[in-house]
Amino acid sequence: MVPTPFAQRVAPRVKTLLNDADRLRLETVGDPSTWQRSFSIRINDALTPFLAPRLTRLVAKEAPHVQLRFVTQASKNADLLRNGTLDLDVGVADPAPPDVLTSVLFTDIFVAVVSATSALGAKKALTVDDLCSVPHVSASRRGLDRGPLDEALQRIGHSRRVIAVVPTYAVGALMALEDDMLCLIPSRLASHLQERGVPIRAHQVPVDLPVATVEQRWHQRADVDPASRWLRSVMTAAADLPVPR
After folding, report:
1. At the fourth CATH level, which superfamily is domain 31-106+213-240?
2. Domain range 110-204, CATH class
3. What are the residue ranges in the chain where pLDDT is below 50?
4. In the chain, N or C: fewer CB atoms in 10 Å?
5. Model confidence over 108-166: pLDDT tens digits?
6. Residue extents of the structural domains in the chain
7. pLDDT of res. 9
8. Are strands 136-139 and 212-219 parallel, antiparallel or unpaired?
């Protein structure tokens, strides 16, 4: 076989591309402590305050030269997983497209948080009347002021007043530090904030609400990729760490 003039012209560029591909492969195989790369993770705002620090600590221990980039969950569109912009997507479960794989990280419930020094904070438990006695802050990325709680209250002849809508659960929890406000947030986030010294009291909601299932997602193309498998295993380990009580 004799190389064509075109093949001779592009041979140096092809060799460079192959060398680059080898370097990329070596960055994500073998010992994670030798990797020098970043991972992009889209994560629900209810999870970021407690899950991101856990994951970051574990990654820093096992792969000190790896950087994590946490991306806000502006939507749940799977295209960013398909085109490789995202390595992992973490949030509340809903039906996944056929080319996206999932695994459950944990389940969670919502609790009512109030100021620890307020009248409701001093109670042993909340009644339905207590729940409806103060204005509520609704935490919603989509700006919603109604949800499963309103439906549950309506079924038993009660209603609440939503005085403000905020974009994240962390902001809602901080607003609940006021003596006359209440916000529903996931219990794991509430426990994390309490562990960090935020003076809130988390009460069980006195009506039945849906349980939230949190999962991680990745594109099927990355299913057997060593780096993706390692990242998913570390994410699972972070989610499995004991919840502070």
Report:
1. Periplasmic binding protein-like II (3.40.190.10)
2. alpha beta
3. 2, 18-23, 25-26
4. N
5. 999 999 999 999 999 999 999 999 999 999 999 889 999 999 999 999 999 999 999 99
6. 31-106+213-240, 110-204
7. 62
8. unpaired
